[in-house]
Amino acid sequence: MPLGERYGGDKSESRYCGVETDFDDDMPNLLSLNIHGGFDFVIATLHAGFSSDAQMDPNYRPSLVDDDTSRSHALPFAGSDLVLSPSQWSSHVVGKISSWIDLDSEDETLRKDSEIALKQEIAWASHLSLQACLLPTPKGTSCANYAKCLNQILQNLGSMQLWLRIPLEKSEDDTDASSPDFMGEGHNDSWELWNSFRLLCEHHSQLSVALDILSSLPSASSVARWFGEPSFLTNARGYPCLSKRQQRLTTAFFDHSIQIVISGQPVHNIPLGASESNVDNNAEGGWRHPLKSYLDYVAFLYQKMDPLPEQERFEPLMDNLEAQTYETFEKDTVKYSQYQRAVAKALVDRVSDENASSVTTVLMVVGAGRGPLVRASLQAAEETERKLKIYAVEKNPNAVVTLHSLVKLEGWEERVTIVSCDMRNWNAPEKADILVSELLGSFGDNELSPECLDGAQRFLKEDGISIPSSYTSFIQPVTACKLYNDVKPWFLFPHIKSHKDLLHFETAYVVKLHRVARLAHTQPVFTFTHPEDLSKTSNQRYKKLRFDIPSDTGSSLIHGFAGYFDATLYKDVHLGIEPSTATPNMFSWFPIFFPLRTPVYVQPGTPLEVHFWRCCGSTKVWYEWCVTSPSASAMHNTNGRSYWVGL
Ligand SMILES: C[S@@+](CC[C@H](N)C(=O)[O-])C[C@H]1O[C@@H](n2cnc3c(N)ncnc32)[C@H](O)[C@@H]1O
C-alpha cells in the first residue's frame, strides 16, 4: 500500500516503500509477512542454494562445473521460480545481488567468480521478470571492470532496472574530494563514484542509484546534487527518530519522485506517536511487522508535506506550448490579476482624478486571444473610475470569432473595437496611450515579443506606456539526468549520424523541472524594454556568464541550463517564473531547458563559463550557446540549424 496522500491530494506518482530483508529460503512466507506488514515490496536475496552465511563468507565462490576446457558454468543455485506467482515476482520482489561480489578486485579469482555470479543472478532475476535488482556498492577505488560487466548486461537486459547501491557520503575536505583517488581511505565523495560509473555506462536509462542514507549527512549543497539523478531509493536506517535535517532531506527526496526502502533491524523501543495510532496490525492478527513503526513514520513524513499548489494539479502537458488551448491560459487568474493591477496603475498615472470623467484613455491589447486581457483592462478602468477605449488586435481568426461573441455577450460594443490582423501590419486609426500585450515565452523573448512589439510601437504615443515595460531571461546550470536521457534516445551513437540526431540536442525544451539539481543561483541573460529607440538598438544579443558553484557541493555534472524569465509589467508590478522571485500560483509557463550535447564535468573551485547569443535573421530568430570553462563544448545550434522561431 503506497504511503498515502499528501494533504490536498497528490495526483502525481505514488510513493512506495520497500523493505530490505535478510536471507530466507522460504520466499512465500517472507513476502507474505512483509506485504501484510504494510510494505509494498521486498528486497530479497534470490538464492536458495546456500545460506546467508555463505554470502558473508569471503571465501565463498559459486560452484563451477567444467564441461570442457574453455567454458565453465555455475551449478543451479536458486530455488524454483514456482514458489511465487509471476505477478508476485514482478510486483513485489526486487532482487538483491550478492554483496560479496567484487568486480574490481586485485584477486583475479575473486574477480572472475564475481563476474559469473553477477551475470547468473541477474539472468535469474530477468527470468523471474523482476522490475529491478539492487547491485552491491563498488568496492575500492576503481569501478571500471564492474561498469564493463554492467554494460554487457545492460545491452541485453529487457526492461529490468538496475539500482546501484551508493552510500550518501562526502568528505568535507574539498582538496581531497577533487583528487583522482577520491575514494581513498577516509576521503570520499560517493557522488564521484556514481558519476564515474554512469559515465562509463553512458547514462544508461535502466541504471539508477540507490542511495544509502547514513546517520550523518554531508553539506546541503552536496546533497542537493543528488536531486538531479534518476530514481532514488533511500535506505532509511535510524527511524523513527530522524533529525530535522534528515526529515528535510527525506521530504525533499519525496519531491523528486523517489521510492524508500527501510533496512536493518529495529533499534528503538518505539515511542507511541502520531504515526502509531493510525493502523495497528495487532488488532487484526496479533502480529505487527517489526519495522512497522518505521514505515508509519515515513508515511507520516510524506502525508504531512505541504499540499501541492493548485497549479501543479492543473498542470497541462507543456511539452508543446503552441498546442496549449486558450482555455488553459484563461484559467491562470493570477496572470490576469497582475495585468489588471498594472493597467490600473498606468491609468491613474496617465489621467489625474480631476480629468477622470473627461479624458478617455486609448488602450490597445495586441495579441488579444479570446479576450481575457480586454476584460482585465476594463476591470482596471472600472476600479480606477477612468474612461477607456480599447482596440483588441488579434491575428488568429479563430480566436477573433470567440472575441466577437464575448464582446457581444458582455455588451462591450461601445468600448471595444476588434481588429483581426497582424499587429506588425495594422494601420491604426489613432495612437495608443497604453499598449498591453502578453507575447512572452518561458525564456521571455523566445516567442518574439520584441519583434512583435517593435512592429506595434508605431501606434504608441511618444509618451505612451507599454505593459510589459521590460522582461529579462535568466539561466542556471543544472544536473538533469532524466531530461538528458529523454533527449538522448535520438543520440545513441557517439558520432552524430545525421542532422536529425543533432537537432534534438540543439533544441530548447519547455518542461516541468522535477528531477533536477540547480547548481548555482540564476543569472540574467537578455533584457528587452518597451518602448525602445528603434534607431539605436537591435534585438541581437550576446552574454557571457560565469557561474561559481558553491565549493561544498563537490564535483558536479552539468547536463544543460534551466531558463526562466521575469517581466516588469508596470512600475512595481511584475510577473515571472525566475525561482527566487516567481509569481506564486501562476502556471502559464514552465521553465525552458537548453541541453548540452555532452555533459560538462565541473570540479570544485572551477568556474563554469557559458555564452549565449540571440541571433536575428530576415525570417527567423534563434539562440546559440556553448561552454568554454572548465572545458570547451561544441557550439550549439549554429545558424539556427536545429531550432529557431519563424518571424
Ligand atoms: C500567449 S497568447 C495570449 C492571449 C491572451 N492575451 C491571453 O493572455 O490569454 C498570444 C496571442 O497573441 C497573438 N499574436 C501573436 N503574435 C501576434 C501578432 N503579430 N499580431 C497579432 N496577434 C498576435 C496570438 O495569436 C495569441 O492569441
From TrEMBL:
Alphabetized UniProt keyword annotations: Methyltransferase, S-adenosyl-L-methionine, Transferase
Keyword Hydrolase included in the entry's annotation: no
Keyword S-adenosyl-L-methionine: yes
Matches recorded under Pfam families: PRMT5, PRMT5_C, PRMT5_TIM
Location of the PRMT5 oligomerisation domain: 470-645
PRMT5 TIM barrel domain ranges (all copies): 58-304
Residues of the PRMT5 arginine-N-methyltransferase domain: 312-467
Family recorded in the similarity comment: Belongs to the class I-like SAM-binding methyltransferase superfamily.
Protein name: Protein arginine N-methyltransferase
Species name: Rehmannia glutinosa
